[in-house]
Amino acid sequence: MKRTYIKDLGQSVGEGVSISGWVDVRRDQGKMVFMDIRDMSGKVQCVVLPSHAEALEQVKEVRTEWVLKVSGIVNKRPEKNIKQGVQNGDIELEITNIEVLSKAQELPFALDAELNFDTYLDYLPLTLRTERARDIFTMQASIVQAYRDSLVVQGFTEFEAPALVGGDAEGGAAAFKVDYYYDKTAFLATSPQFYKQIMVGPFERAFTVAKIFRAEKHATTRHLSEAVCMDFEMGFIEDEKEVMKVLENTIRHTVETVTKKHSDMFARFNTTPPLVPAEIPILTLKEAHDLLGVEHVDDMEPEHERNICEWAKKEKGSDFVFITRYPTKKRAFYTYEDKSEAPYSRGFDLLFRGLEINSGAQRIHNHDDLVAKMESRGLDPKKFSYYLQAFKYGMPPHGGCSTGLERMTARMLEIANVKEATAFPRDLNRIDNRLSE
Ligand code: ATP
Ligand code: MG
Questions:
Q1: What is the pLDDT of residues 93-130, one digit of tens each?
Q2: How far is CA 44 from the centre of its chain?
């Protein structure tokens, strides 16, 4: 019999069907056995009645996470057993035959148990099957898709940035070393920055969804050793505001998309879709410090980021807020500074529900200015000769930005630790297994 997906069972009431999936839970009630079966489309309650002796014999051994192909009849539930608001809450599958596709060993814990986070990570091949984890990574997939769709509509072309690079060129973030051919050292990219700027050459507007690797020994709830960034770069801009506008469009489209697709998920995570007003508020760093009544320092402390987000929500009805005009010396060397605006740069950060999720800027596009800037920062332009070709051979005024996918996902569902918004997180203590083991 052809497989029916569990979400479609409601259309087959009174009919014989075949479904395949995992045993989510098993409950024995007297001589009857109840099982919730789960597939990619949802869950349904199934029952094996004493009248089906063969099925009852087959179900004897079956336990949680066994993979089954079962056939049976879809029945309407009696009125008193209907569960409102639950998928398939008004039907039940009466099982007539069971085929075991795969057995599972006894689980180390119940899948709906509250787990310590390290235990959750130790058992990811199992714990990723929980509804919570499936929600998080369904949300993440929708975010990436919406980001792509929005940029394509805005005229951007996607490209693949390399993960292996020849130098830890940027000098900003710490890089992991890789043994390359002929005793050469390569590095894992800390950012696709140079490559997306180069791609302004062929495309004017280019974007990438790239892996970045950062070797700083961070132990925070917002840092990973391997992360995904959604980056774009665009040519022929007047200033960084144009980049911020494209980002705002992308954010708005993403939030609208996930609000439509995943309203149930926001409820399960005890949160609501984020607020994106007609214009995301923009504050200079100074204005932000003044609003918070703190000293004019060169950066935002995590606590300031949280507090300024609370202000934006209360006063501007926005879960997002831009901070601009950071001192140039605090930003990457390629950040543009207009003479009239010195010592402040055309860089910006976007904060979302208390956390930086994006950094961007207008970049220096003049070759000689860029070389001078490298030298003033103690960087050797010779090491950047490959990248500098883009500027040697004509680069328009341009800018772009980078959004951390895991941070965006985590804030979307108000998950405290970005590692929970990463399917397979790598950090100071773990690559799949704990490093201490
Ligand atoms: P932070 O100051 O929070 O350490 P950053 O300013 O060094 O971050 P950027 O270089 O601006 O990070 O990277 C752009 C975006 O990529 C960040 O806004 C963030 O969303 C994401 N990102 C950067 N580093 C990490 C990391 N180690 N783990 C997770 N996400 C990261
Ligand atoms: Mg940043």
A1: 999 999 999 999 999 999 999 999 999 999 999 999 99
A2: 29
**What order of strands is seen across the sheet that includes strand 433-434?**
426-427, 430-431, 433-434
Bridge partner list, 284: 324
Q: Which residue ranges of the chain lie beneath pLDDT 70?
A: 168-172
Please indicate whether residue 351, judged by its CB atom, sits closer than 6 Å to ligand 1: no
Q: Considering every ligand atom shown, identify the ligand nearest to the alpha carbon of residue 351 and give its number.
A: 1
404 lines ligand 1 (CB under 6 A): yes
Strands 67-76 and 32-39: unpaired
pLDDT at 237: 98
What tens digit of pLDDT does each residue of 28-55 get?
999 999 999 999 999 999 999 999 999 9
How far is Cα of residue 352 from the mean position of the Cα atoms in its chain?
13
Backbone angles phi, psi at 205, to 5 degrees: -120, 115
Q: Which residues pair with 36 in a beta bridge?
A: 25, 45
27 C-alpha vs ligand 1 centroid, how far in Å?
Answer: 46
* 380, two tokens: 């050797």
239: number of Cβ within 10 Å: 14
- The CA-atom distances, in angstroms, between 50 and each of 33, 172, 240 are 9, 68, 71
Angle at the Cα of 420 from the Cα atoms of 206 and 65, rounded to 5 degrees: 115
- The finding on whether 430 has its CB within 6 A of some atom of ligand 1 is no
Global pTM value: 0.96
CB 186 within 8 A of CB 178: yes
Dist CA 330 CA 132 (whole Å) = 38
CA distances from 156 to 255, 270, 348 (A): 20, 35, 21
Question: Which residue has the least CA distance to atom 19 on ligand 1?
Answer: 404
In the chain, the domains with their CATH numbers are 6-102 (2.40.50.140), 124-434 (3.30.930.10)
pLDDT at 437: 80
